[in-house]
């Protein structure tokens, strides 16, 4: 990342609520050094209650360079690291156990000399904390790790108010999380003056268990976890702080970081690091709250129906979240409910019905759900892609609200009480039959059979198999679902939507009837 990217990233971490932020490795390059100076010298960039953490190896000249980089800062964690495993000690450093301890103590004493014991008055304006990382702790015997840390602690002389941080990483993850947790527990029990020590862990993700290892380490006694947003780090990365935080959140424990606009955080990380967040990453992936599978969609739809009913009866969003397949409310992360259900060839009627309900605010009758789902699946199989809500609405209108060739078209519809008979309904229809206008009328009992009687003269001699009306309050509109059938077992659905109930019913009848006519014509041609 360049300086601008680093600054944007830092500002996001501050906004999220993180109070200890590792900002640089100042001795590594001039770019790192300059960025650190920019943070400190720019008023208002680092909040008063935020610790900036800088990293350095156990080399005295690089430690001095690192301390110079943070001159003038309010709160600084000086993070030095030294590998303590037998492999590194013998192969990389060619040092004895005693040599490692001597080096660690020497570096800590140098830090004391340059900070809290410095003759430079400016250094005393900074609140200093030291973090010592035993690199490759996972391959270090716990007894030796404690021996090193006891020597470092003695050299620094922490207090209860200003603890020393001992950071215990799985630099390369080589064990199951429970084994790492056992190591942490042994360390916590074995280190003296535990009240003056902050035990930190830094699990990597080589075995894919970084988050699990961090959680188990906390249960074993760790006080602090180091990681990155979405686990970006060396090789396979390290602990994903987003997952770690939201795992706590879903169990009712506040992580004290604000992830209420997770999409914004994802966008920032992707733009700054040029590393994409996996679409199925926990909580943050774009498919996390999406389901394509029919059984899942049906369960979620029923769950949301139950939720809406509970809210109607007075429950609030503060009530305990209970939803099939969704461990948390997507709204809590700034996600939208309408993105939950996605449709492809594997989807069932629940998903199709959900999207149609969200788009047109209608609840299809069950038989129509089943039939229309097959229409959508056929489209998905043909295209090979996900079917969008726009496409679903277009398919619904095409198959149930319009016909390709409108032989009969409704121009006007009126219904009133019949003269002289208050129990009867009088219907007047104005229609266009193949371009020729006609006026029809009929008198009967209920509206639907009376409209059908009026249409018999133009070939609508059908039986009503299903008839449902829905009122859409948000649009002040009636939706009529009508299924007509013939003696020859041909049946079709029609749907009408209009502010006028008579018009909606008439339109539904016309569509269903013309679809039956088209089917009869096709049957005659095939015979």
From TrEMBL:
It is an enzyme of class 2 (transferase). Its EC number is 2.3.3.13. Coiled coil: none annotated. The keyword Transferase applies. Keywords: Transferase. It catalyses: 3-methyl-2-oxobutanoate + acetyl-CoA + H2O = (2S)-2-isopropylmalate + CoA + H(+). Belongs to the alpha-IPM synthase/homocitrate synthase family. LeuA type 2 subfamily. GO terms for cellular component: mitochondrion. Transmembrane segments: none annotated. InterPro entries: AIPM/Hcit_synth_CS, Aldolase_TIM, LeuA-like_post-cat, LeuA_allosteric_dom_sf, PYR_CT. GO terms for molecular function: 2-isopropylmalate synthase activity. The keyword Transferase applies. GO terms for biological process: L-leucine biosynthetic process. This is 2-isopropylmalate synthase.
